[in-house]
Design a protein that fits this description.
Elements: H1 9-19, H2 28-35, H3 39-51, E1 55-58, E2 65-68, H4 101-110, E3 120-121, H5 125-128, H6 140-150, H7 160-164, H8 166-179, H9 187-200, H10 207-229, H11 233-243, E4 269-270, H12 275-290, H13 295-309, H14 316-323, H15 325-330, H16 343-356, H17 360-384, H18 389-393, H19 395-406, H20 412-421, H21 429-442, H22 455-463
Parallel strand pairs: 3-4
Antiparallel strand pairs: 1-2
């Protein structure tokens, strides 16, 4: 029996490269025929490559077409025919950190077999000898530069920046952090999961979906808690409890400093094992981060020190990635989403800290991640523009009109006219009428909560044909 062809990313990219010479874009069905691979597998691979910036998609349904982006350049000499199962050299990601010579030397050392790397354990001095605003883990000039790039120009209440970009950040950070833990959802699948939960209230959950939804809930918790409570042991412990809910078999481990032995797979690093000392060092890490004035240095400090300490039974790296956003949030700096990070790069950077107390790779990786995050969320802010003062001033009036139309089945004109009797200026009514009509046209189950409406009443109104006049 002939062996079934195995799809590699390189095979798919090569097929696309050949077919794009004669087409403006390639359909998934065409790729399936060209490679001999099932359409379902082709679509899953394409979705992953879209997420990673290798492929662009246009059109919808049967008109959907896929286009190669410049970063995806397959090597022509390595084209296999159908049936070839040998693995091909991996295509490099669109961008990678510019590793310094120190980082490259660290990677070489970490590439040695485990047996040739001496066992090591936690070094308390990495925290105890750190003097906030005198010591630095990041180069001081780099910390200042990144802080300047990531800050908002105006003075605003703590958490304003993160709230302004919260919608894309929820997806970006939830997906990227989960992906670093081996989660199999694509970015598009994550968006759909969040939409389904918002519309249906509940969906079938597996471990991957639970991990993603826990990330979303944990980010939302941070946005509410950090501006008022700051960086504290209580907030971080609750962050762990939300992140790991229904993912740990023992619920008593949620938010609790661990009492069990943990080991790091593929490493010679053995974390601290004494609960009392773990508690002490955990409090010291958090207390030190509280006193670091540069929010980017504080972010980096929390990221590496929490992962290095391993204070919880599981989920420590997840906690460290989200906690890295706390200092940034307090000072209204761009959040850090860890989007586009190669899993191997991330693991090696952490191993450098664990086994050598060497931050070189972590510094290079963090700089690369944060510059990308600053650029991404600056665009989000610019796209959002300035808030509409008229809409903000009349938000309660709009809510009253919309609820009158949906709940009470009043006509839109009558509901707007009632506002004049409540003291709203008559010249404002035409614009309020138009804004209310726009909101009613776009009202759906997934966005009705902002107007304090329930899913059922909105569904009934939509089912009745969206009556307005």
């Amino acid at each position: 029996m002939p062996r079934k062809p195995i799809l590699s990313r390189e095979l798919l990219l090569s097929a696309m490269s050949r077919l794009l010479q004669d087409h403006g874009g390639v359909a998934s069905s065409t790729l399936s025929q060209a490679t001999g691979i099932s359409l379902a597998v082709i679509k899953r691979m394409l979705a992953s490559m879209v997420d990673e910036g290798l492929v662009r998609v246009t059109g919808k349904a049967r008109a959907t077409r896929y286009h190669l982006l410049p970063a995806a350049v397959p090597v022509a000499a390595l084209q296999p025919g159908p049936g070839v199962t040998e693995p091909l050299p991996p295509v490099a990601p669109a961008t990678r950190p510019d590793w310094t010579a120190t980082s490259m030397a660290l990677q070489d050392w970490l590439s040695q077999p485990l047996a040739s790397r001496p066992p090591v354990t936690y070094q308390r001095g990495l925290v105890e000898q750190y003097q906030p605003n005198q010591s630095t883990l990041l180069p001081a000039s780099l910390a200042r530069e990144l802080a300047a790039q990531g800050s908002l120009p105006e003075q605003l209440p703590a958490g304003t920046y993160m709230r302004k970009v919260l919608e894309p950040l929820l997806i970006d950070l939830s997906w990227s952090s989960s992906r670093l833990e081996g989660n199999r959802y694509s970015l598009l699948d994550t968006e759909q999961l969040f939409r389904d939960v918002a519309v249906k209230g509940s969906v079938h959950l597996d471990a991957d979906a639970t991990m993603l939804l826990n990330h979303k809930a944990a980010i939302e918790f941070m946005v509410d808690a950090v501006p008022t409570q700051g960086i504290s042991t209580g907030v971080i412990r609750n962050l762990h409890a939300v992140l790991m809910q229904d993912l740990l078999p023992d619920v008593s481990c949620l938010g609790t400093i661990r009492t069990m032995v943990v080991n790091i797979s593929g490493s010679v690093y053995l974390p601290l094992q004494m609960p009392a000392l773990l508690q002490e060092m955990f409090e010291r890490v958090v207390h030190t981060a509280q006193r670091i004035r540069n929010p980017v240095e504080a972010s980096f400090f929390l990221w590496v020190q929490l992962a290095y300490l391993q204070p919880f039974a599981d989920g420590n790296k997840r906690v460290s990635r989200l906690a890295a956003n706390m200092p940034l949030m307090l000072c209204n700096h761009s959040p850090i989403s860890f989007l586009g990070v190669d899993r191997n790069d991330y693991a090696m950077a952490m191993l450098g800290v664990y086994e050598r107390a060497d931050f070189a790779m972590a510094i290079d990786l963090f700089e690369w991640i944060y510059r990308r995050s600053v650029a991404r969320y600056r665009v989000v802010l610019e796209a959002a523009g300035q808030p509409d003062v008229f809409r903000i001033r009349h938000r309660a009036d709009l809510q009253e009109v919309l609820c009158a139309v949906v709940r009470d089945r009043r006509t839109l004109s009558a509901a707007v006219a009632d506002l004049a009797m409540r003291g709203v200026d008559v010249p404002d009514l035409p614009r309020l009428h138009e804004l209310a009509r726009q909101e009613l046209d776009g009202l759906a189950e997934h966005n009705c909560a902002r107007w304090r409406m329930g899913l059922r009443e909105v569904q009934q109104w939509i089912g009745a044909g969206r009556p307005q006049d």
